[in-house]
Amino acid sequence: MVGIDVGAAEGLQPHWWAYEGAVQMYLFEPHDESAKRLREICGRSPYRDTFRVVPAALASSTGQRPFYMLNAPTGSSLFPIDPGSEFVGTENHYVYPIRTTSVAVRRTAEALDELGIERVDIAKLDVQGAELDVLQGFDDARARALTLVEVEINVVGGINSTLSPYVGAPTWTQIDQHLTVNGLRLLDIAVSRRHRDRNGDTDWYQREVFGTYESSPTLSAMAWEVDAVYVRDFRGLIQERDGAGLRRLIVALGAYRFFSEAHYIVDQAGATGVFDAAAAADLRGAIVAWYRLVGHRPWHGRGAFWSTWRKLLSRSGLSQLRRWKQYMWFDYPNG
């Protein structure tokens, strides 16, 4: 399997390290300092040979594009900041000062051709508004072969809103339409939340008005961005009797701990004869073994002892700490 991480910046997301050693990873990062850090991170992996850092920017067409480098490198984008946005103040130190430079961008398909990548199985796109631009750079064959895509989308103001601080950034509706046309379906979202700032200080109201800490669950924060995960529709793979594609889908789901979904897909593929009885049994066993390796804990058991233990914990207040996680600025509910 082959994976691409476009805008990798500080390294793979925690859940993507589950693919370490099993997937050939190409990390695209045009920011020089970030690319250097990526090489250092990947170089520490025992599977360092499965990583390649590519210092290039991807887009829908090849050419020179302005590159807007924010004060925080992770916010740099091919799209300019809207200075009139209600979410961009002149005192915002994440944004300002902005340095504009020029960067060579490659059409996604051309860059993949040069690297000898015939098929991309999994892709993560975090390029500050340019996600649809990168997706449109795929040729039709590669776009229809994608197994999983995780894409960051600005949703402040709604799924069809144009309130993004980046001028020209696509809406969730536009990205969803592009992915679904190519046979992918929404699997999950992780919501990033943000409090209103005052002169660029996102902690001002919590600190100065309400006297609480920045991420206190007593003050709600608006949905700001989502990481949306799309996967290949297994029904199409079954209809095409694509056993290899189904196996790739099962691997893709495992990193996100959708083990029950993977098990269900094997059941469906077995019932229709895509997998024979022996292959289906082997796959079910492998899925359960993977879950037990990374997810199962004794206290998750269903017996009377562990049930009583969980009830005692819920009364002790520790469960309240778990519930507070949903109010944190960024939450991965599955990993």
Could you give a short description of this structure?
This protein has 335 residues and is of the alpha/beta class. It has 12 helices and 10 strands. It has a 7-stranded mixed β-sheet with strand order 3-2-1-7-8-10-9. Strands 4-6-5 form a 3-stranded mixed β-sheet.
* Total DSSP E strands: 10
> What class, by secondary structure content?
alpha/beta
> What is the arithmetic mean of pLDDT?
88
Largest sheet: spatial strand order = 3-2-1-7-8-10-9
* Rg over alpha carbons: 22 Å
Q: Biggest β-sheet: count, sense, barrel?
A: 7 strands, mixed
Helix content: 25-40%
| Spatial separation of the terminal alpha carbons | 21 Å
The SSE string, one letter per element, is: EEHEEEEHEHHEHEHEHHHHHH
Multimerization status: single chain
Number of H- or I-type helical stretches: 12
Name the shape in a single word: globular
Low-confidence stretches: 324-335
Share in β-strands: 15-25%
What does this structure look like?
Helix content is 35%, strand content 20%. It has helices spanning 32-43, 108-115, 131-136, 140-143, 172-181, 204-209, 234-239, 243-255, 259-271, 277-294, 304-316, 318-324; strands at 2-6, 24-28, 51-54, 57-59, 63-69, 99-107, 122-125, 148-154, 184-194, 222-232. Strand 2 (24-28), helix 1 and strand 3 (51-54) form a beta-alpha-beta unit. Helix 8 (243-255) packs antiparallel against helix 9 (259-271). The longest helix is centred in the C-terminal third of the chain and has 18 residues, at 277-294. The chain is globular, with a radius of gyration of 22 Å.
